[in-house]
């Protein structure tokens, strides 16, 4: 089986990259002459998804215009968060309410989703379906992060995400979630970590470990260093 619909979360303010993000939304910042959003979309195309939903809020018109001008060979729908920013959980729920699909692959475009991730994410997708899961998060060892200020959030035991004194793994911005996880929630401002925490406490939060070097637009200093690579 294969995921049909990808979600790309583009509504954030990107305040840690001010002043750049006062005039340019973070997904449209460029590395190697390509926006972070374009790199992310190109990876989703290689994964074979059929449709992409993108949420916007801060400087959202720029993202809409970018998508319109690039003419990507896939159906991309922009969902604007009108009155207030919905955070990651509310933003995801607002997006999936526009689809009849049940399973979604979700990306944060502030990770540099280079093509080398294709094999790992395909493996993660296979792991998700073969084990009949309703969630899986892509994790990486903090030692593989370009930004050495990242602290570990999790550890893995038999692909179940735990928290303990080791905590050597970080979430790197890709997950697969089933719509059923949101049945008790309404569209509002809440973090996806609320759902993660409930799953983890029930020993039902799943992880898949990446072995790739992890590049993330954490802040202005990291962005400048990445541009110099």
Q: What is shown here, in short?
A:
The chain is α/β, with parallel strands linked by helices and 229 residues long.
Describe this structure in words.
By secondary structure, the chain is of the alpha/beta class. It has one domain (5-227): Alpha-Beta Complex (Spore Coat Polysaccharide Biosynthesis Protein SpsA, Chain A), CATH 3.90.550. The chain contains seven helices and eleven strands. The chain has a seven-stranded mixed sheet with strand order 5-4-1-6-10-7-11, sandwiched between helices. Strands 2-3 form a two-stranded antiparallel sheet. It has a two-stranded antiparallel ribbon with strand order 8-9. Strand 2 (30-31) and strand 3 form a beta hairpin. The radius of gyration is 17 Å and the shape is globular. The model has no long low-confidence stretch (mean pLDDT 96).
Biggest sheet strand line-up: 5-4-1-6-10-7-11
Unreliable residue runs: none
- What value does the average pLDDT take? 96
Q: How far is the N terminus from the C terminus?
A: 38 Å
Reported by name, the CATH topology is Spore Coat Polysaccharide Biosynthesis Protein SpsA, Chain A
List the SSEs and their pairings.
Elements: E1 5-10, H1 20-23, E2 30-31, E3 34-35, H2 36-47, E4 51-56, H3 60-70, E5 75-80, H4 87-96, E6 103-107, H5 118-130, E7 135-141, E8 155-157, E9 160-162, E10 169-178, H6 193-201, E11 207-210, H7 220-227
Parallel strand pairs: 1-4, 1-6, 4-5, 7-11
Antiparallel strand pairs: 2-3, 6-10, 7-10, 8-9
